[in-house]
Specification:
The complex is a heterodimer of chains A (149) and B (92). By secondary structure, chain A is of the alpha/beta class. Chain A has a single domain (2-132), classed as Cytidine Deaminase, domain 2. Chain A has helices spanning 4-17, 55-68, 88-93; strands spanning 2-3, 23-29, 37-41, 50-52, 70-79, 100-105, 113-120, 123-127, 131-132. The chains are: A alpha/beta (149), B alpha+beta (92).
C-alpha cells in the first residue's frame, strides 16, 4: 500500500532523469511497513543501464534513517528501455529483505509501468500495489492526519 | 577501548539480531577477523579471496575504505566501522 502522491513523486523522478536510471527510497517508521518520506537519490553511475547510490550519500542516508527511527520501506529505481521487472543485476544486489523493491519503466513516453517486488535470497515475488489517497482508514496507526478537503 | 561496528539488517542473523557490536583491531581486516571469531560466517559475507565484495561498502567513521587503503585501512580506538550493502542494480 502506497500513497498516490508518493507514486507521482517516483514517476516524476524517473521521467526527469530519463534516459538515465533514477533511484531513491521512501522511508517510513521502523516496523510500520508504511512508506512516508520521499528521498530521491543521485544515480552515481549516471547510466541508462545501471544505478548505484553514491557511497557517501548511502552512509548519510542510513545515518539519517537511524536517527529518525526509519527504515527504507521502498527502494525504487527505473528501467528506461525494458519492463519494470527485476534484472539479474537487481537481484544480485538486493540486500534489504524487508523492503519493497519498486520498479518503474519509462520506456513508453505516455504511460509508466509501476510494479513492486520482494527480493529475498535471490527469489523475486511480485506483490500487488494498492494506491491510496491516505493511510488514515487503512489500519496503519493513529498518527495520520486527515486530508483537508 | 574498542571499535563499534554497525551491522546492516541483512547480516544481523550473524550477530543475534544486534545492530551494533564491539570489536578489536588496528585495521579493518583485523576488525573483521575479530568479529568472525565471535560471529562465525560474517567474514564470508564481506570478503572473497582477500578482497571486499563489490556489493558491500565499509566505512571507518565517514570514510569509505575503498578510498582509504581498503581492508588495510587503519582503525583507531573508539572509531565506528559501518558496514552497508550497496544499493545498486540495472536493467541487465
Amino acid at each position: 500500500m502506497i500513497r498516490a502522491d508518493l507514486v507521482e513523486e517516483i514517476v516524476a523522478h524517473a521521467r526527469r532523469d530519463h534516459p538515465d536510471e533514477a533511484c531513491g527510497v521512501i522511508a517510513g517508521p521502523e516496523g510500520s511497513d508504511r512508506p512516508e518520506r520521499f528521498v530521491p537519490m543521485l544515480n552515481a553511475a549516471r547510466s541508462p543501464t545501471f544505478y548505484e547510490f553514491d557511497s557517501g550519500d548511502l552512509l548519510r542516508l542510513y545515518r539519517d534513517l537511524d536517527a529518525r527511527g526509519e527504515v527504507p520501506v521502498v527502494i525504487y529505481h527505473s528501467h528506461t528501455a525494458t519492463e519494470a521487472y527485476p534484472s539479474r543485476t537487481d537481484i544480485s544486489y538486493a540486500s534489504e529483505p524487508e523492503a519493497h523493491y519498486v520498479l518503474v519503466s519509462t520506456r513508453e513516453a505516455d504511460s509508466a509501468e509501476f510494479r513492486s517486488f520482494r527480493i529475498v535470497d535471490g527469489v523475486v515475488t511480485e506483490e500487488e500495489v494498492q494506491v491510496v489517497e491516505t493511510y488514515m482508514f487503512a489500519h496503519t496507526g493513529a498518527d495520520t492526519v486527515p486530508d483537508k478537503d | 577501548m574498542a571499535v563499534t561496528v554497525s551491522i546492516p539488517t541483512i547480516l544481523r542473523t550473524h550477530t543475534g539480531g544486534e545492530k551494533s557490536v564491539e570489536a578489536k583491531g588496528g585495521t579493518v581486516a583485523e576488525v573483521i577477523d575479530d568479529l568472525e571469531s565471535r560471529h562465525g560466517g560474517l567474514k564470508d559475507r564481506l570478503i572473497t579471496n582477500g578482497s571486499l565484495h563489490r556489493f558491500v561498502n565499509i566505512y571507518v567513521d565517514d570514510e569509505d575504505i575503498r578510498f582509504a587503503g581498503g581492508l588495510d585501512a587503519p582503525v583507531q580506538d573508539s572509531s565506528t566501522v559501518t558496514i552497508l550493502p550497496a544499493v545498486a542494480g540495472g536493467m541487465r
